[in-house]
Predict the 3D structure of the following.
Amino acid sequence: MTNAWIDLRSDTVTRPSNEMRAAMNEAEVGDDVYKEDPTVIKLEEQTAAMMGHEAALFCPSGTMSNQICIKAHTQPADEMICEEFCHVFNWEGGGPAALSNISCKTIRGNFGLIEPNMLLDAIRPPNDHYPKTRLLTLENTHNRCGGRVQPLNLVKELRDWTRKNNLIFHLDGARLWNAIVATGIEAKTWGKLFDSISVCFSKGLGAPIGSAIVGSKEFVASCRRIRKRFGGGMRQAGTIAAGALYALNHNIGRLKEDHEKAKLLGEAIKNSPGLKIDQPDIETNIVWFRLDQDIATVPDFVAALKERKLLIHTSGSSLMRVVTHLDASMEQVKKAAEIIQEVTNKLSKGKI
Ligand SMILES: Cc1ncc(COP(=O)(O)O)c(C=O)c1O
């Protein structure tokens, strides 16, 4: 896709910059299955230190990282508690059931936030009829709930609740970087609250591929074994780890710009006839919104945007999403806002 296109479907669409490609090109490599890739080792050590944990494991994707953690934490017929719109339950191909043979108990949150009072009866009593409740998984920021940041105090309350009830606490932190930048709360403070964390380098940080699991040495060793079984043992993976390292060292602070761009788009959407924001606030880089079906159908709306070289994400009959990222400049985002307003104005007057 050339620069003429403005692609706001996801922050996964970014391409590696020339500087990132140069770092990948120059990476020192070895066979990582033999634990001999110096760049992978450097990335793992740096990520673990940042998150305040002992060890990390480089993985190809956020999905694989999450699913390896779930597998490492559970036995078949266990149960995981998670929020009903979370990624691990909805968008990872039924991974918990297919790969770990566990069930999920989903909790209806408050736009992605689980509060301790919602968990009163969530743990199964010790009785042969029931699966065993083993872990609670949280998502920060929460993708489907508008890039929402989990408030630190709430996360602490949930951590205390998991400790009190002898449960494991896992974080899908694919976009934890956005939460760190939005709150100014450092990675370690978040990291130390969880037993395991999955972070992604290929979302807002702009690396072409890669994710990491963070946890204790013992836990990460068990994940390494599962990663091999899942087919995720990689050889000269330093070539891609170098992109992730570059992202970690250069692209976190700039997420602030993506958050500003999302606010700008949110304002434009709010002021567009027939569109309604579908989240309480715009905290990071994701904006979900709905289209009034009396004005147009989602496919017609999206086609009109596409004719103007603007791509957005759709979900179901009325829901849509825009995500800001480092490959859509402020200028392009302003242009996208103008296109959205132009198209909704025309549609509301029946002129498209
Ligand atoms: C919150 C969240 N977790 C996990 C993932 C999975 O990441 P991947 O696409 O690298 O498998 C995504 C993907 O967008 C996500 O949004």
